[in-house]
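Give me the fold.
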Amino acid sequence: MLDTESLPVEAVEVFEELLDEPLMPLEELIERLLEYREEILAEIAGTVEFVDDELVQALTARSIELLERIANDYDEGAHRHAQASVRYLMEDMDDDEDLGSVVGFDDDMEIFNAVVSELGHTDLAIGF
């Protein structure tokens, strides 16, 4: 079970709701994540100067790597956790509004790191 003790309560609540969503094909999740990265980086470049675009790049790239690993060694529980992490990243109104704060993506990073730790892919963890 995901270690949620160090995570914000609101983030855990959103993540747990996302865990209950029907599973999407991994390829579709990767496509959606690539589209999200393109859209969010364009928005950051155009109007939001204080958001850490390097963190956004790391989150999306490592999320894709996690999804690819799961596709190569499939496990439904891992799929569910990775999907919830990706969906959390793509949700703007999670614990911290992503584009509304300089730390808007920090909760996304915390969720991602908790998921990769739970799934045994700690080499993908992000530390900024």
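The chain has one domain: 24-122.
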